[in-house]
Amino acid sequence: MNVDIGNALASVASPGVSKDSLERLDEHVADAHERIEGGMANAEHGYEALNLPRRTDPDEIRSAVEPVADADALLTVGIGGSALGAATITDALADESDTEAIYLDNVDPEWITGHLERLDLENTAINVVSRSGTTAETLANFLVVREAFESAGVDWTERTIVTTGEAGPLRELSDRHDLPSLKVPDGVPGRFSALSAVGLVAAEVCGHDLEALLEGAAAEAETLSGSLFDCPAYAYGATTYALDQRGAGVNAMVPYAESLETYAEWFAQLWAESLGKDDLGQTPARALGVTDQHSQLQLYRAGPRDKLVTFVSPGDLEDREIPETDVEDLSYLGGTGLGELLEAEFEATEASLAAAGRPNVRIELEGVDEYELGGLLYGMEAATVLAGELYGVNTFEQPAVEWAKKATRGLLGGGDFEEADAVAEKTALRIER
Ligand SMILES: O=P(O)(O)OC[C@H]1O[C@](O)(CO)[C@@H](O)[C@@H]1O
Q1: Looking at the structure, do residues 358 and 220 belong to the same domain, yes or no?
Q2: Which of 97, 213, 264, 274 is deepest in the core (most CB within 10 A)?
Q3: pLDDT for 316
Q4: Do residues 319 and 338 lie in contact, with contact meaning Cβ atoms separated by under 8 Å?
Q5: DSSP string of 56-77?
């Protein structure tokens, strides 16, 4: 990926960051890079994620997937980083696949039932993914899916792959039923695991090129250096950090390709769960170009000066011509292409923000294929790790998510948790219809 931070400079935007400030910040980037390199060299928790392009073994994944490689549909049962990385890849490349990839990463009963009732379970594979193996939503959904297969007379053990940690309920289940299983790599938090079996099992079942994904990531890894001016990922991580320090507390991720909508959701977890600590962190907003030009752009251009917009330009998409029209006002569209229109709208929107002094950064891809996607995933992970070093937070843990888990467990009779008691003590001020 390439990064253009020109529209984030103080000469263009407010808040903005001056070139001098970036030069000074680059000294901290150099120190951070040294820390990152050391963490990678020692396979330290979290930093190990940046080693995945050379650690992940596509042959091991292909071998585990082999029994269900012919599936017409793939049900991935996982949540957060155990679903979003895989979904980013298969949603981005869906046009290249004959396999329907569905991600059960919520416990909405009507939604789950709708999928289970319409799918031909004989030709559906189950991809259960959980690093801990104890995530309530994932285990609950797996039990429901397994029961649906049994009710349909389909042997779920013939259709299931498990990706989980060394130990835990899912590992025990996999061992007990001798299921094909893969390991969530040690030292890799879920939101950083897209380039491991966690993200690549689904890609393999859907017939995507694992080597190209990993090659794109490896090429991005090669760019990691001691200066933000030599490394697109660090340029992004440092610029977003600097803008947050100057008041841009929101980062709207706006990919200009329908196929990258799920990528924005993946980025939101990566950014929020990594940097949202100690009262610090920048809020990711998920948006989509061109669609949200008719939805959120008004706020981005004329609302509070508390936002950065990150555009992802997909590069050349296969175009489709717009027929000529006799509608006078629209005749300029006839004979052009939808891709041309999308590109023009992207450039016009980027310029409209710059004209209003609103900071924005451009991430440039050369198409949406496995190689570019691998580079984008890796680049954003590296940008997040760098930003975490600059914020001085613990990038790789997420303690704040545990309170609600305990409260939920207590509410369902899974133990005595003071968090559950606190739920009952809610302050209410109800305004009823
Ligand atoms: O892979 P697991 O252990 O099921 O966790 C799923 C997700 O839940 C979290 O632990 C947050 O609760 C995320 O960090 C993680 O991606």
Answers
A1: yes
A2: 213
A3: 86
A4: yes
A5: --HHHHHHHHGGGTT-SEEEEE
ipTM above 0.95, yes or no: yes
**What percent of the chain is predicted at pLDDT more than 90?**
99
The edge-to-edge listing of strands for the beta sheet with 160-164 is 100-104, 73-77, 124-130, 160-164, 181-183
Which of 170, 186, 208 is the last residue before a domain boundary? 208
With a 6 Å cutoff on the Cβ, whether 190 touches ligand 1 is: yes
User: Containing domain of residue 138, as a range?
Assistant: 50-208
Q: Which two tokens stand for residue 370?
A: 């496995």
Note whether 222 and 189 are same-domain residues: no
> What is the rounded distance in angstroms from the CA atom of residue 349 to the CA atom of residue 311?
10
Q: Provide the annotated active-site residues.
A: 273, 294, 405
Are 405 and 136 in contact by the 8 Å Cβ rule? The answer is yes
Please check whether residues 13 and 59 belong to one and the same domain: no
pTM above 0.90, yes or no: yes
**Confidence band, pLDDT 50/70/90 cuts, at residue 65:** very high
Structure confidence by residue, pLDDT tens digits, 248-276:
999 999 999 999 999 999 999 999 999 99
Q: Which of 87, 101, 274 is nearest to 199 (CA)?
A: 87
Q: Which of 103, 127, 135, 162 to mutate to test the pocket of ligand 1 (most atoms within 8 A of CB)?
A: 135
pLDDT digits (tens, 9 = 90+) for 318-331: 999 999 999 999 99
Q: Which atom of ligand 1 sits closest to the CA of residue 184?
A: 1
